[in-house]
Every structure is written in structure tokens, then in C-alpha cells.
Amino acid sequence: MVELSVRVEAETGPEVVGAARALVRSMLELWDCDDPDEAGVLLTSEIVTNAVRHAAGVLAMQIDMSLLDGMVRVSVEDPTADRPAVQARGLEAVGGRGLQLVEALAARWGSTPTERGKAVWFEFPVHRRHRANG
């Protein structure tokens, strides 16, 4: 059972990457969670960037974020059916390492076909802070 969740529809474009990072930071703060290495923010940036890059011309994407038992799942859905694959890149390559980061830093990650296309998701552990009552 999901403890907390949020869903956002966002227009695609370069500005959505920064907005997605801000969403993750804001929700973690609202949920009293620590992500000291900002792995969740970094990985969100990677999968949103991939969605923007590979879904060129697509008007909207959906970003879901949920918290359950100290684990946060971030999912980005776009209307393309192409499933992501980690690609080996040489040291001289300018880009293409995003999924390598996701694979290295996420507790789990994957993609799921949806009615609209696909959702790429990852999970990362967080520490829940406890607020003092009163």
C-alpha cells in the first residue's frame, strides 16, 4: 500500500527537467524525507531528460512519485513505446550515460508498457524524519 503519492502532467521541453527536480525536492521535504546524496533528484533528471529527448514532438508526459516503507518510486510516462536500454559508452562520448547512472544508483529500475506508451521508473531509499508533536 502506498503511503503518499503525487501525479503531475507536464508539457515536454527543456524546462520540464528543472521542474521535475524541484518536484522531487519539494515532495521529499513535504514527506519529511532525507535524500542526502540527492540521488533521487539526479535520477529524475536523467529519466525526464530521456523522455524529452526521445519523445520529441510529444506534448505531455506524466510524472508519478510515491513513498512506501522508506522507498520512493519516481515514474515518468510518455507516449513512446520504445523501451530504454543501457548502452556502453566510451570515455570520449559526450552523452548517453543517463541509464548507466540510473542502473548504478537506483535500488531498482525498469520500464513498464502503458496504454499511452511506457513508463520508466526507479526506486531509491530515503530516511523519514520524525517531526516533534506540539
The tally of strands reads 7
Radius of gyration equals: 15 Å
Q: Strand percentage, roughly?
A: 25-35%
**Helical/strand content category:** alpha+beta
- List the uncertain runs: none
Distance from N terminus to C terminus (CA atoms, Å) equals 28 Å
Would you list the SSEs in sequence order as H and E?
Answer: EHEHEEHEEE
Largest sheet: 5 strands, antiparallel
Helical content stands at 25-40%
Q: What topology, given as strand order, has the largest sheet?
A: 1-3-4-6-5
Shape: globular
Mean pLDDT: 85
Oligomer: single chain
Q: Give me the number of helical elements.
A: 3
Give a written overview of the molecule.
- This protein has 134 residues and is an alpha+beta fold.
- The chain contains three helices and seven strands; from the N terminus they run βαβαββαβββ.
- The protein has a five-stranded antiparallel sheet with strand order 1-3-4-6-5, with helices on one face. Strands 2-7 form a two-stranded antiparallel sheet.
- Strand 3 and strand 4 form a beta hairpin.
- Helix 1 packs antiparallel against helix 2 and helix 2 runs antiparallel to helix 3.
- The longest helix has 16 residues.
- The protein is globular and about 45 Å long.
